[in-house]
Amino acid sequence: MRLTILEQSFELMPERAVHWLNESTLIVTDLHLGKSGHFRKSGIAAPHQINQTNIKRLDSLVNELKPDRLLILGDLFHSDVNREWFQFEDWRANYPQLNVVLVAGNHDSLHDSFYEKANLDVYNDLTEGNFRFIHDSSAISTSEFEYLFSGHIHPGVRLRGKGRQSIKLPCFYQTKNQLILPAFGEFTGLFVLSEEKAECIYPIAENEIIQLNTI
């Protein structure tokens, strides 16, 4: 699904990512790597393969698109360091020429040394031209001249059938001056946002993106 925003081209991808074509940048958010390991350490059952599955999905996208930059809009890692972080470090070492930028989220609490070792450039808030990239946009004021890309919410939408059937799907959620990305990571949950406040919602159904115009 191709969008033109402020004369720039963005491809919404069913893999829960955005490809900023003009800047050869792959944008993702809320991977929450290490979450399954964190849950298991706390005695909560969680699948062992979730972390590797997320990394493999990211690897496939990077290999397919060959971007110059990977921009992560926060919550790369879920909690305290565990062996699943080192799985990410191993993956990162395979792409030394890839510029990886992390806009820190509320879960990105590792010591700076871990980000430095993984060769990540870390920001709390990143502005490029009229585009602003941030993890959680709820606590900031915006200018009419800015367009926001954010994550944090794990947006979802509920689609209803003619009967009582319904399904909840991850989505890209677009307003006049903002695009909220779906969580890239699995095992992250969904938060259903109001359709009334959106200009357009793009649910992800398996390998397709659907466009729902709300105004």
In short:
It contains four helices and 17 strands. It has 215 residues and is of the alpha/beta class.
Q: Could you explain the architecture of this structure?
A:
- 36% of the residues are buried.
- The two termini are 19 Å apart.
- The mean pLDDT is 87.
- The protein contains 4 helices and 17 strands.
- Strands 8, 9, 10, 11, 12, 13, 14, 15, 16 and 17 form a 10-stranded mixed β-sheet that branches.
- The chain has 215 residues and is of the alpha/beta class.
- Strand 8 and strand 9 (131-133) form a beta hairpin.
- Helices cover 19% and strands 33% of the residues.
- The protein has one domain: Metallo-dependent phosphatases (Purple Acid Phosphatase, chain A, domain 2, 4-Layer Sandwich).
CATH topology call: Purple Acid Phosphatase, chain A, domain 2
Shape: globular
Rounded to the nearest angstrom, the radius of gyration is 17 Å
Mean pLDDT comes to 87
Q: Span between N and C termini?
A: 19 Å
Under CATH at level 1, the class stands as: Alpha Beta
Summarize the amount of helix as a percent range. Answer: 10-25%
Total number of strands: 17
Q: Tell me the number of structural domains.
A: 1
Main pleated-sheet profile? 10 strands, mixed
CATH architecture: 4-Layer Sandwich
List SSEs in N-to-C order: EEEEHHEHEHEEEEEEEEEEE
CATH superfamily: Metallo-dependent phosphatases
Strand content: 25-35%
Number of helices: 4
How does the helix and strand content classify structurally?
A: alpha/beta
Indicate the low-confidence ranges by residue numbers: none
